[in-house]
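Re: export button greyed out
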Amino acid sequence: MYDHLILTILLAWPLVAAAALWLVPEGRAKHVALVAALIEFGVSVPLWWRFVPSGGMQFDANVPWIAGWGISYHVGLDGISLFLVLLTTFLVPLSVLGSFTYITKRERGFYANLLVLTTGMIGVFVALDLFLFYVMWEVMLIPMYFIIGIWGGERRLYAAIKFFIYTMFGSLLMLVAILGLYFIVGSRTGTYSFDYGFLLGNATGLGSLAWWFFGAFFLAFAIKVPMFPFHTWLPDAHVEAPTAGSVILAGVLLKMGTYGFLRFALPFFPEVALSPTVQAVVVTLSLIGIIYGGLVAMVQPDVKKLVAYSSVSHLGFVMLGIWALTLQSVQGALLVMINHGLSTGALFFLVGMLYERRHSRLIEAFGGLARVVPLLATTLTIVSLSSIGLPGTNGFVGEFLILIGAFRTYPWAAGIATTGVIVAAMYLLWALQRVIFNKLDKQENEHLPDLSWREVAVLVPILAGIFWIGLYPKPILQRMEPAAQHLIDTLRPGAQAALK
Amino acid sequence: MNLDLSTSKGLMIGLLPELVLTVWGLVLLAVVAWRHKTARDLRLAGWVTLAGLASSAVAVWWLWWNRAGATGITPMMAVDDFRYVSDWLFLGAGALTVMFSFAYLERESLLAPEYYVLLVFATIGMMLMAGGEDLIVIFLGLELMSVCVYVLAGFDRRSARAAEAALKYFLLGAFASAFLLYGIALAYGATGTTNLSMIGMQVASLGLAKSPLLLIGLGLLLVGFGFKTAAVPFHMWAPDVYDGSPTPVTGFMATAVKAAAFVALARVLVEGFSATAAWHSIVVGIAVLTMVVGNLVALAQRSLKRMLAYSSVAHAGYLLVAVSAGSPQGNAAVLFYLAAYGLTSIAAFALVAARGRGGESDLQIDDLAGLSIDKPWLAFALAVCMLSLLGFPGTAGFIGKWYILLAAVSAGKGWLATVLVLTSLISAGYYLPVIMAMYMRPVPFANAHAGLKFGRLGLVALAACIAAVIYFGVLPHQLLVLARDSGATIHPASLTAPVAGN
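Workaround output, generated via the alternate export path:
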């Protein structure tokens, strides 16, 4: 019973909770939301044990939705989506807890949006019907749009609409591609269906159409990731969003792009995705993203913007790992997706905490904080080091796996990407030095309060995750391996065909 | 139930909905002649109208339930599901308009119950257009509808804008009618008949597909329908007329009148001209122009009512994409989209009507600032409308757009589908600012939105619209099946089909 209902419960519960929020007084909303998010997390945890690594798609539920058009409510999990779902349910309660003092107006609405967003995010990761996937992909736009637009910073309106229109641009083209795929496969086989497995099994020999379809999917996902020339919405959205919004954006929403590549763009159109041209383009853009993101991060006067640009860099690693298509690199890419959710999520939390204390995010406003707020400074140092990829933290494992994996496929690219790690060290350590070390030369900074118990409760679970993955990643890698291997096995014939 | 249309009994049964509504219209005229002074009389007329629309809808339902149909080629009026579903659209749009008009007419002190009489006769005209199997019937229906709507547009006699709107609408509408009539004449000249199915058979059997006379006639017909559907470049009248008319009338024009023109267009093209391939590329061209121009110009509007007027032009473009498919799926998409767009658009115009004063044309988008704080439910309703017009998942507007895209893709017009999604992306640029103003801007001053009031009946209608928009966005299956089955009932007559009646 659990196996077939669990995903539906995970999807429905946040919606129920969001509706229930309107029944409680405004001041209680945050507590109710926290309890709801914790229950959600609690329900999702058993997935970890019940998941069978070699079992392919599991926990599936399949109910006809719009039967006459081959649309069904079909959800399921495999080794790729398992961790993204767990990451989502893990980050949401922390985001709620982290917003307790940050969000002071229209609280009910904020937490309701956050919960609806949870449904959308989980929906994207578990949907096994392309129509359902598209619906979830779009649905999660609205709560995020509201979160940025209502509770964001000064330029929130601009950032919100930019975020919305960028994402919608890609996804609308994807919708046409999905419909084209549906129609072509349907007219060939006589069965019109949006089912993932069915379309995947029959989407062969599309000829030049595959290029168009891949292009549409690519654009949708590349904007979301974001890859280099499509990244301009990201700094605005991240900087203007409230802390919880930034955490969810960086932690989960960006992963939807890379997840989309792994789940749809690559398996559906391997000949195109792995043709030399596309390989060259993707690898080049990833490298540009890695280096350019790091260099731009380095010159940011605003800490939040610095973290935002570091995302461009980290996601470049993920894209490189996916396209390198070796077991290590794909596993590394999956791991970096999680790591980035933890480390960057924690960085955004910490920046938010600094902002709440000082009402500034400019690096120059700080300095010498280590003496005033030692706990906060220590946490910031640890998290920064994990983001750089110091051995013993999660960042090291992921990026190392990507680099050794990619070295076999693209030795040159791996070499260039390695410098990205150095750039990361440069911008983060330099920022760290200016924020928490140096001289304590600003009067305003002399009496900042250190972390409260609530803030400690937000950060400790993330720190635990950082060290766990850094020191003993085996249980995670074990669960990923069959799915990653399966992906490579299905793609490799296509890759070889493309290379010949 | 098979109707023998050559007997008067069969004909009466086939025309039952129109007859019922006509009788109610006459009753209403009598009521209005006796009682036409106070607000109470106005309400009475409104309730009589609602009763008339409802009983006509029941008559349509009865025909639909009994699968009333006729074999072979029907003279004058079609008896098929396409007509029934279209009739429901008009009757529903009419009923919603009546419900929203109750409070509006009293507030604007337009205490003339003839308003409802005109509305009923306009609806009868639409029903004739949707069922017209003969170009002459379609033309008569169109004129009946148009004349009533010309008057409705200028119903606020004290408003100069309304007078301008009515005059403009009348002059350009008369032009359009002339084009249409000339087109009918030329089509008759080429084929010797005005019956749609017969035209189709003549074109096929006599090889008239390239006949210049017929092509010019078809072109003129398209111009006439282009005016009525407000397709670019025949849309010039629409923004001014929509802007100047009383807002519930604008809602009625943007939904029911437009729907009537579209279903008639679909029937004419599919039944009469499916052998004439020329119209496909013309309609595609007009569709692209309409989508691009409608969306781009809407982007520049600051007045909410005018923005909705231009957006209605843009939606005509999406509908033309469905028409251009020329397939049963395209016809089904037209029906579904009209239903989805109608529900959404009428609700949106009703909200504009409730917020504004004296014609509402001075209501700016920014005037809605902070509405979500003062009136959260009405802000939610308008937000749902905007998202549905934008075609966002979870609303009926998305399913409608999806269905049109599906029709376009399966007709091999993937590029047209791409144009559709790209132009609808532009529409995010003017629908989102409405949401933005309501949710993300502060209330400018205390009691800024105190004037936003709905009558009880209006609130019921609004709640019904919004609930339907969401319901058909999440569980659209039944409505999709209805649209699919009805869309398939108009098709070119086969050459061997017997002629029913004479």
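The longest helix of chain A spans residues 156-189. The button fix ships in the next patch.
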